[in-house]
Amino acid sequence: xxxxxxxxxxxxxxxxxxxxxxxxxxxxxxxxxxxxxxxxxxxxxxxxxxxxxxxxxxxxxxxxxxxxxxxxxxxxxxxxxxxxxxxxxxxxxxxxxxxxxxxxxxxxxxxxxxxxxxxxxxxxxxxxxxxxxxxxxxxxxxxxxxxxxxxxxxxxxxxxxxxxxxxxxxxxxxxxxxxxxxxxxxxxxxxxxxxxxxxxxxxxxxxxxxxxxxxxxxxxxxxxxxxxxxxxxxxxxxxxxxxxxxxxxxxxxxxxxxxxxxxxxxxxxxxxxxxxxxxxxxxxxxxxxxxxxxxxx
Length: 297
Description:
single chain; alpha/beta; Rossmann fold; UDP-galactose 4-epimerase, domain 1; 7-stranded parallel β-sheet; 9 helices; globular
């Protein structure tokens, strides 16, 4: 799908993935960002990038202020409050209301997570791998809410005849944000970094590749919904990227501590997304270097 001169609704525009994606899409499209916008600076930053902002309460699922005539929807909305009622309402129930509101769109991208998979000791997850509570210790509601959200998206695709793709994102990061940035700041502060004993390996995916993947993913939208792992093929452990950041930054070796309560490995089988877009834009070493250089001590 060519994303040019389209009207695109994006939910979750102020999170980790939303800001760079919205600005990238706004270069050639009308982008309408939907969020509470409790932080006026976050709203101002998006508007400066050419993004239209509409305040929406996802917990109440009130989309009455949002125009229905959009071409594409990218649903990134997520909360991790730990409150079951709130997190299920935003991460799953709101998806159904959103699909109902935008039932006439050309395509709907529902962003899920590798957290839907049952931990398996670090072996690759294919799209049909068993589901389970992957983030139980650190985020008690997250995995279950994401699994529920996928079910709602599959229902919505069939109920409204809305072509849908469910994309399971794995460890997004970029020049401005991401999990590795938290680790960099922790290393500078001399803090311990807890990792799972299974090797703590993940597929990083840079903001630039996320933006490049979106039209490819939307082209896979279908009824019934299509489900794809969303990650780059470069498998790397927390210890590896921390060692590399320490080398670049000079902040000293990371204090890696194994813990059963840390997030288990999320090793994704990326065969299907690689077949759709084999040329990745940013390898993990280049991306990590850019992140560190963008956050001088």
